[in-house]
Write a structure and sequence with these properties.
Helix content: 55-70%
InterPro entries: AAA+_ATPase, ABC1_TM_dom, ABC1_TM_sf, ABC_transporter-like_ATP-bd, ABC_transporter-like_CS, P-loop_NTPase, Type_1_exporter
Low-confidence stretches: 1-11, 23-36
Largest sheet: 6 strands, mixed
Number of helices: 18
Bound molecules: adenosine-5'-triphosphate
Main location: membrane
Membrane topology: Multi-pass membrane protein
Order of helices and strands: EEHHHHHHHHHEEEHEEHEHHHHEHEEEHH
Shape: elongated
Strand order of the largest sheet: 8-9-10-5-11-12
Distance between the termini: 58 Å
Radius of gyration: 35 Å
Strand content: 5-15%
Keywords: ATP-binding, Membrane, Nucleotide-binding, Transmembrane, Transmembrane helix
Pfam families: ABC_tran
Mean pLDDT: 84
């Protein structure tokens, strides 16, 4: 997706654990985002743009604090200029004529200015610092919540793309980076004002000194910015590797996989791969370190040479009598001040550039997520139940070449129970999600009441659907929230009770220490864990609580005991008699006998459809599958 592309050489060695998925970490990822430029000048030109993104954020987050920061840094800059100029006024007469009571007395006003300006500068810096510390966290929160809002509203298909996940990861770093950028940008302003002050003083002392000062400044800035860029590019190239390392550490410490990690002795296996991949990351760090050291050396060499040249020039100007000793003394003070300011300036440029690139990634991820926001058409669904159809429907998951569904036709009339059956991976769940409006067709149409899903108000479609997906969510929240999530009617006790009884969640809740208020998340203090079947009852309860006209059940009873399973299928049949439409994805063929129509999927296509009896008579794929299941229950001696 987007501009993230991976160059994948055919001869590439595949990773023993992640297969071709590791290719990005082998340094082949061609990251074209974040305005990564090669030339120093274009990078320098980029710097204001990088800062501007954060400043825009800051303006939205806390405009008053931003103003305080800007004014404070400006004042501190002015204070530095005044301090230096006044110091110069004190020193020159004293050094030219030698100290005397009269000269000392005449220097007092300038000394007072020095003191006053220094105090004003300190006050301004303190106010700026306080404002920055307020602004930073607010910017970070604003940036992160914007990213979260956009990611949560993106099309489900966008979240299937690994490129988008890499971008999201960089964007997450970008939200933290925005906080650093604002702090460092303030320091950069302060550094620049010091340089400006010193430059002005040097320019007044002798015009030659100014270009020499610049010659000591620029090479260091050059090496800092090149280093920052190298670090950023390296981090981007290794984003996939970092995520894979995180996945491995999550597997080694996670609760869900802990039993298998132990029972299958997978710990050493995973640790071995962690070590191997860490070694790749470390090698990259070492390479980066060498590059950075070379860059720093080059910058220091040129800066140092320019520094020597400055003092040689001062010496020559002195011996030639072009400038008096006092002026040379003031120049030395100015140059030393410049050096101190320079170090902090270089650090700030470094940080602002490097972190600014991440902020740019945040902006790019927000743009990308905004481009993939769930679309919604203008047509609202009518109040009464409508027919749902798929016509010549084809769907290809993002990044995949083979369609998960090809040229499939389905008709679901209001109040019908329609079952999808077929082998694993044959496209049943994909069809259910497309009919529910979670994905948009690659080609062909899904229509509700004759209106294509793209033209419908998506919200109104979701409002009509209750979905129990195969991998339904286990919300780390109370039992009550697990049934009522996102519903303002959460407090309706009667409705909650009906949903719990229908799904069998009532028995689960009755056994919980705090009933409805029990936290269903073992990873938190006071939390409780449910069994697979108990979770499934809770998931079903959620669908019942929604009381939607269309219910999609994807393997709703896979973890239930036989009694509960029969109970649930009776409930499902009851739903249809009360006018609900039911889409049932299941491998339990005994339960589809009551369906109005059964669609048989194979390899992404629908190969048969009809009532149970018709399909049995036809003697095709359905009859074969049914026969196989029935044989399992036949008495062994017959
Ligand atoms: N999120 C996804 N991204 C990419 N491919 C997917 C994704 N989900 C499913 N697929 C692929 O689409 C095809 C159909 O999957 P689907 O989940 O619809 O099958 P199914 O019939 O419901 O299978 P099962 O009976 O195992 O639940 C499979 O080949 C699967 O690998």
């Amino acid at each position: 997706m987007g501009r993230h592309r991976t160059g994948h050489a055919p001869s590439e060695v595949r990773d023993p654990l992640f297969g071709s998925g590791i290719r990005a970490s082998m340094g082949r990822l061609k990251h074209e985002g974040a305005g990564v430029r090669t030339g120093f000048l274009s990078m320098a030109r980029e710097l204001p743009g990088l800062v501007a993104v954060t400043v825009r954020l800051a303006r939205r987050a806390a405009p008053r604090d931003l103003l305080v920061v800007l004014v404070a840094e400006l004042l501190s800059g002015v204070a530095t200029v005044v301090t230096l100029m006044a110091t110069y006024r004190v020193l020159v007469p004293l050094m030219t004529g030698g100290p005397s009571a009269e000269r000392l007395a005449s220097a007092v006003p300038a000394l007072l200015v020095v003191g006053g300006a220094a105090a004003a500068g300190s006050l301004a810096r303190a106010a700026g610092k306080a404002a920055v510390s307020r602004l930073g966290p607010t910017i970070e929160r604003l940036a992160y919540t914007r990213l979260l809002r956009l990611a949560a509203g993106a099309e489900l298909a966008a979240l299937e793309s690994p490129g988008f996940h890499n971008l999201l990861e960089a964007a997450r770093q970008g939200t933290r980076a925005a906080r650093l950028v604002i702090a460092q940008a303030a320091q950069l302003l302060a550094g620049l004002s010091t340089l400006l002050a010193v430059g002005t003083v040097l320019g007044v002392l002798h015009p030659l000194l100014l270009p020499l000062l610049l010659a000591t400044v620029l090479p260091k800035g050059w090496s800092a910015v090149r280093s920052a860029r190298a670090r950023f590019v390296s981090a981007q190239r290794n984003m996939e590797l970092s995520r894979q390392l995180e996945v491995l550490s999550g597997l080694l410490t996670g609760r869900d996989v802990a039993p298998e990690v132990r029972a299958h002795a997978a710990g050493d296996f995973l640790l071995g791969h962690y070590d191997r991949l860490s070694a790749v990351a470390e090698a990259e760090q070492a390479r980066l370190g060498r590059d950075e050291a070379r860059l720093a050396l080059a910058g220091d060499a040129v800066s140092g040479a320019a520094g020597v040249l400055t003092y040689v020039t001062l010496g020559l100007l002195l011996t030639a009598g072009t400038i008096p000793l006092a002026v040379a003394g003031a120049a030395v003070i100015a140059i030393r001040t410049a050096k101190a300011g320079l170090i902090s300036l270089v650090m700030s440029i470094n940080q602002v550039y490097e972190q600014g690139l991440y902020v740019l990634e945040w902006e790019r991820a927000c743009d990308e997520a905004a481009r993939h926001q769930m679309s919604s058409g203008p047509v609202p669904l009518p109040g009464h139940p409508v027919e749902i159809r798929a016509d010549d429907l084809t769907f290809v998951y993002p990044g995949q070449s083979r369609p998960a569904l090809a040229h499939a036709d389905v008709v679901i009339r209001p109040g019908e129970i329609v079952a999808f059956v077929g082998a694993n991976g044959s496209g049943k769940s994909t069809m259910a999600k497309l009919l529910a409006g979670l994905y948009l067709p690659t080609s062909g149409r899904v229509t509700w009441g004759g209106v294509p899903i793209e033209r419908l108000n998506r919200r109104s479609v979701f409002d009509r659907v209750a979905l129990v997906a195969q991998d339904f969510a286990r919300w780390p929240a109370t039992a009550r929230v697990n049934l009522t999530l996102g519903h303002p009617e959460g407090g309706d006790r009667e409705r909650l009770w009906r949903a719990a009884v229908a799904s069998g969640a009532d028995a689960v809740v009755a056994g919980l220490p705090d009933g409805w208020e029990t936290l269903l998340a073992r990873e938190f203090m006071g939390g409780t864990e449910l069994s697979g079947g108990q979770w499934q009852r809770v998931g079903l309860g959620r669908a019942w609580f929604r009381d939607a006209p269309v219910l999609v059940f994807d393997e709703p009873t896979s973890a239930l005991d036989p009694e509960a399973e029969i109970e649930i299928f009776d409930q499902v049949a009851g739903l249809a008699t009360r006018g609900h439409t039911v889409i049932l994805v299941t491998h339990r063929l005994a339960s589809v006998a009551r369906a109005d129509r059964v669609y048989v999927f194979a390899g992404g296509r629908i190969v048969e459809h009809g009532r149970h009896e018709e399909l049995m008579r036809a003697g095709g794929a359905y009859a074969t599958m049914y026969g196989l299941q029935a044989a399992q229950y036949a008495p062994a001696d017959t």
